[in-house]
Amino acid sequence: MKTPVIDEAKLPEVKKLIRDADSLMTEKDCENDDIYKKELEALQARLREITGNAQINIRNFRRYDAAVSLETAARDALMSPPEKEELTDQQIKEIVVNILEHEEAEMGWWLNYLKVNTGLVNLTDYIFYPDLVGIDREASLEQIADRIIEDMKKI
Predict the structure, then answer these.
(1) Nearest to 143 by CA among 2, 131, 106
(2) Average pLDDT, whole number, for the chain?
(3) pLDDT tens readout for residues 71-82
(4) Contact criterion met (CB below 8 Å) for 114 and 92
(5) Which of 61, 109, 117, 118 is in Cβ range 3.0-4.6 Å of 4 for a Cys bridge?
(6) Is-contact 109 97, C-beta < 8 A?
(7) What are phi and psi of 7, to 5 degrees?
(8) Distance CA 99, CA 110 (A)
(9) H-helix segments, 55-103
(10) Whether the Cβ atoms of residue 52 and residue 45 lie closer than 8 Å to each other
């Protein structure tokens, strides 16, 4: 089972790239002005290079601060996207039971990891809004994990 890994040495540069890109996209017309479009493309290329993620899109970090801190955004950028693996029911249960113990970026990665590996697109509802998926709002994480495993097997 993969776990998220963050190269702490790259964190300062990724934070600067995200901050610079956000500022550029907020203050300039990066869609229509060729000079700013190229500047944003250079930031995009560097972000992909430093993260090793050819799919990462720097435009997704526009106004990142409306949702998360710069630290969280940068940590999220440095984590490779989750991949599909063959997980046992016990591994899924372990992830669910411990999900709230992670920092925000890592928690987001684990939620995406569970989505990828369970096929449940509304996975966050199970954990944060269990009543939306027919689970008692006061259910324990163990009960939620059992329901995730049960529903995953129906797909």
Answers:
(1) 131
(2) 96
(3) 999 999 999 889
(4) yes
(5) 109
(6) no
(7) -85, 100
(8) 7
(9) 70-78, 89-98
(10) no
Residue in 9, 22, 82 with CA at minimum distance from that of residue 50:
9
Tokens of 39: 């500047």
Amino acid identity, residue 57?
A: N
The Cα-based distances of 133 to 41, 86, 112, 125, 127 in angstroms read 41, 24, 18, 7, 10
Position of tokens 């869609």? 31
Kindly state the tokens that stand for 126: 């199970």
CA distance 132 to 84: 26
Residue 127 CB: number of other CB atoms within 10 A?
A: 21
CA distance 115 to 124: 8
Burial of 43 per CB tally in 10 Å (0-12, 13-18, 19+): buried
